[in-house]
Design a protein that fits this description.
Keywords: FAD, Flavoprotein, Oxidoreductase
Bound molecules: flavin-adenine dinucleotide
Number of strands: 10
CATH superfamily of the largest domain: Butyryl-CoA Dehydrogenase, subunit A, domain 3
CATH topology of the largest domain: Butyryl-CoA Dehydrogenase, subunit A, domain 3
Helix content: 40-55%
Protein name: Acyl-CoA dehydrogenase
Low-confidence stretches: none
CATH class of the largest domain: Mainly Alpha
Order of helices and strands: HHHHHHEEEEEEEEHEEHHHHHHHHHHH
Organism: Saccharopolyspora rhizosphaerae
Structural class: alpha+beta
GO molecular function, one term: flavin adenine dinucleotide binding
Family: Belongs to the acyl-CoA dehydrogenase family.
Shape: globular
Strand content: 5-15%
Number of helices: 18
Number of domains: 3
Radius of gyration: 24 Å
Length: 503
């Protein structure tokens, strides 16, 4: 598969054209399907490739290094779409649907986000009403759904009302998009990732048979979580591939470029930037390896690992890409030099699948509610004594008293971030003896943890923030300087003329 992707990249893909035309070459889906890339972890009995988690990560890293659109196509189908079906659909449904998905005859995606909610999954408003015959009727709207207009199946998450009219909780359904009442809405024009369409979806009395239920009624969050957890790992892995490729390009340039101090690569500041970037890449790679090894050996992966890989993987790898744009100077801003397109495309990863802020605050809040769970994350590790001291200081911070909800959010964000960094630092320290580069990565990671810990400790007492009204008043005043510049020039008419439409 890796050979296929490399050859395909050299001979068939044109990322610039996909970006400009907002689409893929028509041969893409059959070619990916033929290479087995649409059934990566589907068991062989359902005609998939049954790859291990570490092999899947290699495929995703490779795809991420080639093109973000390619990665997301694979990630949406294989990790957002397939796992809820594989783990929560009835066996007869699995036997019917999974071979179609694994062979690429149909695509699948998951629809969680709605206009009124994105990060806050529990506030889903789409509804499902159970019918006397055991089937369900779905209503509501979903937004930003990758492959929403292309997928034949969508895992839809909705709020169920049971046969007695009682609220029964969020429930997952496998919906056939050819069902009457399922309406695909327009594609949004995005900043990057332009070849993967995102559509809004509307459900107007969509009938879903009883066998369309994913898991148990009211337990839909468990099915949604399989998509999220896998998705978070894959986003970090794809971003890792992109950061590695960006560094490769920046390194080639730096070795060939002469600046006022001599060779660019030999300038100390540049060497420092490259070394920090390599350390970030190596630390994230170590975390991904750790998670996939645990999964492959059937060991439990505590939830904070998935948060850490999503938060730090996506944040740090995008930062590396940004640094490579900078290192390349004007060449970084030229869209045909790969790194610039990565910069636009991978920016999404800090938003998608739960924004960094939302999940950092969530992770921190979980730890603040049950601080004893924080220390238990490290039970499996022989933690270096210096790191153990830092971890004890983080533990102490969890006892901070706050006097407002806002302070509590700030505290949760700090704790969430520190949990992520402490995990990264413990894993990096564990790998310290592998090579001198790993030793550098361990020191860099520990330094990052320490910097963040000191910042959190020094921020006591919390700085009084301006009130929301003060901020709104101040920003409202910008209007006096800027005036109204909203563009209202009519857009392009796309619809078929009324007189030409069917009656
Ligand atoms: C290109 C693209 C593809 C997508 N594909 C899919 C898909 O296939 N399926 C799907 O279901 N969804 C998809 N999404 C939706 C995506 O997952 C959500 O947009 C994302 O989770 C953020 O939700 P939101 O846009 O509603 O932002 P909001 O949740 O409204 O966030 C707005 C701001 O508030 C901050 N914020 C939110 N909560 C908190 C908190 N608790 N603490 C502090 N700050 C907070 C956020 O960081 C952000 O800055 C896609 C989005 C995009 C852009």
């Amino acid at each position: 598969m890796l050979d296929f992707l490399r050859k395909y990249s050299r001979e068939q893909l044109d990322s610039r054209r996909m970006d400009e035309r907002r689409g893929f070459p028509v041969s893409l889906i059959p070619d990916l399907a033929h290479a087995g890339l649409l059934g990566l972890q589907v068991p062989k009995r359902y005609q998939g490739r049954e790859l291990s988690h570490s092999d899947t990560a290699k495929v995703m890293r490779q795809a991420g290094a080639i093109d973000c659109n390619l990665l997301i196509y694979l990630a949406v189908h294989n990790t957002l779409g397939v796992p809820p079906v594989l783990q929560f659909a009835r066996e007869d449904v699995r036997s019917a649907v999974l071979p179609e998905l694994a062979q690429g005859r149909r695509l699948v995606t998951s629809a969680i986000s709605e206009p009124s909610m994105g990060s806050h999954v529990r506030s889903i408003t789409s509804t499902a009403t159970k019918q006397p015959d055991g089937s369900y009727v779905l209503n509501g709207g979903k937004q930003w759904i990758s492959l929403g207009a292309d997928a034949h199946y969508v895992n839809v998450f909705a709020r169920l009302t049971d046969e007695n009219g009682q609220e029964a909780g969020i429930t997952g359904f496998l919906v056939d998009t050819s069902s009457p009442g399922f309406v695909r809405g327009p594609e949004v024009i995005t900043l990057g990732l332009k070849a993967v369409p995102q559509n809004s979806l509307a459900m107007e009395n969509v009938h879903v048979p009883a066998e369309g239920l994913l898991g148990e009624e009211g337990k839909g969050l468990a099915a949604a979580k399989t998509a999220f957890t896998r998705g978070r790992l894959v986003l970090a892995t794809g971003a890792l591939g992109a950061a590695m490729r960006a560094l490769e390009l920046a390194q080639r340039f730096a070795r060939r470029r002469e600046v006022a101090t001599g060779n660019l690569a030999e300038n100390g500041r540049v060497q420092q930037i490259v070394a920090e970037s390599v350390a970030a890449v190596q630390a994230v790679e170590t975390l991904i390896e750790h998670i996939t090894d645990r999964l492959d050996s059937g060991r439990d992966v505590p939830e904070p690992f998935y948060f850490a890989v999503k938060i730090l993987g996506c944040e740090l790898m995008w930062e590396v890409i940004d640094r490579c744009v900078q290192l390349l100077g004007a060449r970084g801003f030229v869209d045909t030099n790969v790194v610039g397109q990565f910069y636009r495309d991978y920016r999404l990863f800090r938003i998608f699948e739960g924004t960094t802020e939302a999940i950092t605050v969530y992770l921190g809040s979980m730890v603040l509610k049950q601080p004893q769970h924080f220390l238990s994350i490290f039970d499996d590790f022989d933690v270096d004594p210096k790191l153990a001291e830092h971890i004890a200081r983080i533990d102490k911070l969890t006892t901070t008293t706050t006097t407002s909800a806002q302070q509590q959010h700030v505290l949760a964000a700090q704790i969430g971030e520190l949990v992520c960094w402490s995990l990264l630092a413990v894993l990096a320290a564990d790998s310290r003896n592998r090579s001198s580069m790993y030793a550098h990565t361990a020191s860099w990671t520990e330094q990052q943890l320490l910097d963040k810990l000191r910042t959190a400790e020094d921020s006591r007492p919390f700085v009084e923030l301006p009130t929301v009204d003060e901020l709104a008043r101040h920003i409202g005043d910008f209007d006096t300087s800027l005036g109204n510049v909203e563009q209202r020039r009519p857009g392009i008419q796309h619809d078929l003329d009324l007189l030409l439409r069917r009656g």
